[in-house]
Structures are given as structure tokens and as C-alpha cells.
């Protein structure tokens, strides 16, 4: 398999989900192959199944391992199943679950069904009062889609209870994950195995990573439960595992031939395969176009907050311009920047799911950039519902930017007039950032009480970028007060300045006035209390 080209079937791999509580052979910071973290048996008479660490010395240990059907060292197939509630149980319950320990539906404090790792595929659930408390009920024919169940959790169920709908065996990377489970001790779906028998404990910090090569253990951007590093100098593999409730382990393994072969295949699958490209939305044509460029799937995942590459045409648009050209037009593109435009947040910092379907495609980004629309503005328009290039360009010409709205609020609330020319320019602003450069405040609280009062003043610099790239700066001096007695109240006032020295002078004057007011008020209170 070539390290620079995409091969194999270019179909998006099924998500290797890991959110279900599982069978975790580990304790914090200790290589303990005989301690298990697993669900306790679900009991219809108990509201909720508990979980916890259990020592091999505990009599219940063999009961749990037998019930779950796992020895900790053999990966178990995981399924999505359709659960037929009518066949399961003819009785209403406070909670529905499987005998293996997976809780599925319970009653919330508000009297509504709470589903765990499952969804209603057909019919409906409801809550009924049976006289001795609320119970989960359902319409006849209701089915639940239960995700990521270990095969051993359903093998002992009556066949009429469920129908399999998806198997982890269908995932193109399933073989790799199972091998990593056995050779490296990394998580496979809900299971974390004991550390391999030849593991030794190690203290491994961020500083230690500098001489280590990171080994991908999952497709780009997918939640992972371990970090793997190769230390070629020491012929060692370092594994850091993240477990339940903050518990984890880290250890060092010898870099044996079978582990090095596995690491080579993990790199190829998770960094260069057609499935890796498909996991970030890129089709085989895009993968072929980007072969030999820095734009591997990891780089494309980092790019998603800015744009998506779906087709060969998108890929050609992306590489037809240098990163500097993209950046000059307001699209922060860099294949090598690991901290780039917020790895999982778009330009401007607004939260957005970094998924292909939520991003402008590279070809669309090229057209938007040609119309003078930056990435930040493009996603502002997209979040407002303008999802096509034509709609976005049309809205861009008439819809105020977020920066322009910020400017309108500042100018409209200022107690000092802003020159008409500056106000008009700010109304066309394309970007805005604010930095608080001075602040002062004093809060006074009554002893052991929320009652109190306070005064404050801030000096903030606002930078507005105009359509041509010019920058206008205004200075905001805002002061305020708050008071809580029987009721709470507060107030504030703002003055804008275009001259930095005038703004600083106003801030100092306001601070001095507030300090004098504070001293006078405190003295009056002391005098009245004598």
C-alpha cells in the first residue's frame, strides 16, 4: 500500500462508537490485569444499574466475567439491534434493561422516558402511573434501536426479543482495532483489555512526546480513547489509555515485529486509505487529486472548520491557490498548522460541528472569496440560512455583518457623539475584535450575605476591519454600578472616543470619580453606624 495514495473502497466507515459503559480491565496508574470495571446485573426491582471496579478476589468477579462472556483479552463483536418490546416483557417497569447490565429506559424526575444509547425506531414510549409509582409503557409494536451492544449481551436473549441491524464486523478497520486490542491494549468499542503481559509501567508526560512519533489509532477527528507513540530510539511503544470516570493507565511495550507491522498498517489505514479520506467527506477523485500533497485526511479534518473537500473539483480548487493567497482573502488555510483556525471551531471562534455537511465546499469557498466574502462572514451567512453561493453573495450585499451590528450598538449607546463619517464607515465593517486594556472595580459585600454593592470602569479598544482592509479603532470607556438589597439593580454608561489619549484621560477621570464616590459612601455608612 503506497503511503502517498488512497487505495481500497472509498466508502465512509461506520463510526467506531465508544460511549457505552463497558468492560474496563484497569485501575488508575497501575497495571492490574485482574481488576474489572463493568455493569452490574440489571434488576427490574432496582432503579438503575451500578458500575464500579471489582477485584479478582471478590466472589462476584467470576460471576461478572461469566455473565458478560468476555475474558478481557479476546475482542467481542459489537452490534446495533432492534429490540422488540412486546416480546421482551409483558409487564410495566420503572426501568427497562438487559440481563447483562445495559440499562435502556428509565423514568426521569420530570416523569418522562430517559433513553440510554438507544432510540425509538417505531411506536412510542410513555410513562403511566400504575398506582405504586410511574412505569415505562409503550404502544404495541414499539421497537428500540439499541447501539453498540456486545454480542455476548444478546446471545443469551430469546431470538424473538431482537433483530441485528449492524455489526462491527462490517467496519473496514475492524480487523485493525481488534489487533490493536490484543497487541497494544487499546479500546475496542466498550471494552478496554488488561495491559499486555509484556507491558511495564512508565511515567510519560507531554515533554516526553518530543522524541516520539504519534501513531494514529483511529480515523481523523473521531473520538479516541488512547494515544499511541513509537519511540524508535528505544525500540518501544508507549500507550496512554483513557478509561471510565477519569481513570486511565499508561505503559511501555517492546516494539516487536508484529507490533511494528500493526503500526505500519494503522498509519496506512488511518492516514492514507480511501476510507480515511471518506471519513472527512472526500471521494476517491479528491483523494487521487490530493495524493502527494500535504492534504492528507488529517489535514482535511483540520480544514473542515474552514471548508470541506468533497470531489476532485474541490481538491483542485484547494491546491490551485497557495495558503497565503487563501489567507489574504480571509480563508485561513494551512495544511501543516495543527492549531489552525480552531481545530474544531470555525473562523471567528463560533462553535460549529466540524463535519463535511456543515462546511462550505472548497469550490464554493473559491467563489465566495472572489466575491470578497471572508470565511468568518461566509459562516455567519450560513448560520443565518443562506446555504448556496448565490444566496450568500446576495445576502452579503444587504445584510449587516456581525461586526456592523456590534458597531451600531456601540455608537447607539455612546453618550458622546461619534463623527458621522466614522459611524458610516463602521456600519460597513466586516470584522471586529475587542481588547480590554484597562479595568478597575470594587465590590463590597455584607458579611455572610449576597447583599452588597460595587462600582467599576473599563477601557476597551475596538478594532473594525473595513471592506477594503483598512482598520478603524474606537475606544470605549464604560462605567457601571450594581447593588443587591431586597432586590438587585445595576446601571452603566458608555462613552466612545476616536482618540486614544482622550479615552485614557476619560478612563482615569472616571476611575478617580468612582474612587471618591466609594470613599464618601463608605465614610457615610461608618458615620451612620456609630
From TrEMBL:
Location of the region described as Disordered in the Swiss-Prot/TrEMBL record: 194-218, 328-356
Positions with biased composition (Basic and acidic residues): 197-216
Source organism superkingdom: Bacteria
Protein name per Swiss-Prot or TrEMBL: Uncharacterized protein
Organism from which the protein derives: Streptomyces liangshanensis
Amino acid at each position: 500500500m503506497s503511503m502517498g495514495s488512497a487505495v481500497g473502497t472509498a466508502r465512509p466507515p461506520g463510526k467506531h462508537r465508544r460511549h457505552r459503559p463497558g468492560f474496563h480491565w484497569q485501575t488508575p496508574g497501575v497495571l492490574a490485569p485482574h481488576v474489572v470495571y463493568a455493569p452490574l446485573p440489571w434488576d427490574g426491582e432496582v432503579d438503575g444499574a451500578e458500575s464500579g471496579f471489582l477485584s479478582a478476589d471478590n466472589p462476584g468477579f467470576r460471576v461478572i466475567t461469566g455473565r458478560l462472556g468476555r475474558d478481557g483479552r479476546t475482542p467481542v463483536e459489537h452490534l446495533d439491534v432492534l429490540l422488540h418490546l412486546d416480546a421482551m416483557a409483558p409487564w410495566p417497569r420503572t426501568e427497562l434493561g438487559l440481563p447483562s447490565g445495559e440499562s435502556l429506559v428509565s423514568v426521569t424526575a420530570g416523569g418522562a422516558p430517559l433513553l440510554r444509547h438507544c432510540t425509538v425506531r417505531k411506536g412510542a414510549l410513555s410513562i403511566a402511573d400504575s398506582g405504586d409509582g410511574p412505569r415505562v409503557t409503550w404502544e404495541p409494536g414499539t421497537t428500540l434501536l439499541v447501539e453498540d451492544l456486545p454480542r455476548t449481551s444478546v446471545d443469551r436473549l430469546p431470538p424473538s426479543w431482537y433483530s441485528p441491524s449492524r455489526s462491527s464486523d462490517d467496519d473496514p478497520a475492524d480487523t485493525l482495532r481488534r489487533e490493536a486490542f490484543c497487541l497494544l491494549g487499546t479500546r475496542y468499542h466498550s471494552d478496554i483489555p488488561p495491559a499486555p503481559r509484556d507491558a511495564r509501567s512508565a511515567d510519560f508526560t507531554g515533554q516526553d512526546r518530543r522524541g516520539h512519533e504519534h501513531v494514529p489509532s483511529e480515523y481523523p477527528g473521531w473520538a479516541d480513547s488512547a494515544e499511541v507513540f513509537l519511540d524508535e530510539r528505544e525500540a518501544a511503544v508507549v500507550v496512554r489509555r483513557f478509561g471510565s470516570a477519569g481513570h486511565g493507565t499508561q505503559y511501555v511495550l517492546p516494539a516487536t515485529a508484529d507490533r511494528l507491522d500493526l503500526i505500519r498498517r494503522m498509519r496506512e489505514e488511518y492516514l492514507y486509505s480511501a476510507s480515511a479520506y471518506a471519513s472527512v467527506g472526500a471521494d476517491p477523485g479528491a483523494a487521487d487529486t490530493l495524493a502527494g500533497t500535504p492534504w492528507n485526511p488529517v489535514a482535511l479534518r483540520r480544514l473542515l472548520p474552514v471548508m470541506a473537500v468533497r470531489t476532485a473539483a474541490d481538491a483542485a480548487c484547494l491546491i490551485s491557490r497557495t495558503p497565503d493567497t487563501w489567507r489574504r482573502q480571509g480563508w485561513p488555510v494551512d495544511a501543516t498548522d495543527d492549531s489552525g483556525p480552531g481545530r474544531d471551531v470555525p473562523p471567528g471562534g463560533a462553535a460549529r460541528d466540524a463535519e463535511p455537511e456543515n462546511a462550505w465546499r472548497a469550490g464554493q469557498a473559491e467563489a465566495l472569496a472572489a466575491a470578497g466574502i471572508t470565511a468568518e462572514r461566509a459562516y455567519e451567512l450560513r448560520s443565518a440560512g443562506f446555504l448556496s453561493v448565490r444566496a450568500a453573495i446576495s445576502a452579503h450585499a444587504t445584510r449587516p455583518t456581525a461586526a456592523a451590528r456590534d458597531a451600531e450598538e456601540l455608537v447607539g449607546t455612546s453618550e458622546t457623539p461619534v463623527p458621522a463619517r466614522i459611524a458610516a464607515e463602521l456600519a460597513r465593517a466586516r470584522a471586529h475584535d475587542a481588547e480590554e486594556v484597562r479595568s478597575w472595580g470594587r465590590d463590597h459585600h455584607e458579611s455572610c450575605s449576597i447583599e452588597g454593592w460595587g462600582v467599576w470602569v473599563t477601557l476597551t479598544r475596538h478594532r473594525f476591519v473595513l471592506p477594503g482592509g483598512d482598520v478603524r479603532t474606537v475606544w470605549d470607556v464604560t462605567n457601571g454600578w450594581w447593588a443587591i438589597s431586597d432586590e438587585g439593580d445595576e446601571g452603566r454608561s458608555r462613552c466612545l472616543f476616536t482618540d486614544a489619549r482622550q479615552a485614557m484621560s476619560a478612563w482615569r477621570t472616571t476611575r478617580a470619580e468612582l474612587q471618591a464616590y466609594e470613599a464618601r459612601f463608605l465614610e457615610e455608612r461608618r458615620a451612620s453606624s456609630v
